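Sequence only, no structure available. Ideas?
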Amino acid sequence: MPRRRTSLSASEARRIALAAQGFDRQRPASPTDARHFRRALRAVGVLQLDFVNVLLPAHFLVIWSRLGPYDRCRFEDFLYRSGEFTEQWAHEASVVAVSDWPLLGHRRRVFQPWQNSPINSIPDRDRYLRDILSQVRREGALTSSDLPPAAGPKRKAGDWHRSVPRWALEYHFGRGKLAVRRRLPNFQRVYDLPERVIGDEHRGIRVRREDACRELLRQSAVLLGLATLRDLADYYRMAVRDALPRIRELLEEGELQAVDVEGWSEPAYLAGSARLPRRIGGASLLSPFDPVVWFRPRVERLFDFSYRIEIYVPKAKRRWGYYVLPFRLRDRLVARIDLKADRKNRVLQVQSAHPETGTDEEETVIALARELRSLAEWLQLESISVVSSNRFSRSLARTVMPS
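Reply:
I predicted one. Tokens follow.
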């Protein structure tokens, strides 16, 4: 797009943001393969891992939103065997390009375990941690189940129920002493030495903290297309005070351009690579941890869509439901829907469905029903059940599974 734009409309801002995340392209018509997986992963840059399995682990839905039905086994095989991607602490625990390994090195060097981690309290902690690395070096990749148990402090109410070996492996992962080779079917990590997982061309590079932060912010700008300072800092979980001087440098280098956006009270920055398509087509359900919606102030600013995940909200206080997904139609978020996969009875349960104000409900119902049928088939669920709590959900029930 022309670089000399100094102002953008709200509609243009939405289209730029969605195009940056790959939504300006149609889902593949042919069976998905490595090319499609690579394209989707590069579009998001950071695939936040979340294994809450109410519907399916959220990161699989992020890929679904961009590709539609795909072979999950084939995707995971590509993820962990291609050598192009690796798990790291990035936004949260995430999959990132292996080229990001050196850019995140400054974080690994200062990583410290959670203050209440039981490994801080076990006797002769350093020896215990060294012995784990020796075992991996000697025996190869392993999981926490392959390590001998270790006594830890008595658990208190609210403590995470992880074993001491698991805490120890995650500490080594955070420090970069171990890397994730793959995931087991139960989602458990399999750890190995970095030299057996990460190529020398990446592992041998050391990047200064300031240079790494600037490059991570440049990548954030490309992945967001259009963003505020807080948006850019959030993508790789960077403090705003650390991001600000690097943003100034990117502006001076011409990587970013300051623009005014209709309705935004904060300064906005446009990436040099940003695309402004004439339209965004298609429809997709979005994971609560999709980069389009994971930073709630940005989704409200872009889409006028107030969103929070209510898993940890007491049932009586929930407004929308337990596991609510935004529904995108073209360049707007037009509805929100609480979904659950009843695998025992092979039913996709729509526990609530609500349109946004000003939505064309008839058009939205037709598009949403189509997406739900495709999702149910992909998850190998035989039927869809809709709780009819309002006019919109009753219309959806009639449309999604007509009698």
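The chain has a mean pLDDT of 95.
Hope that gets you unstuck.
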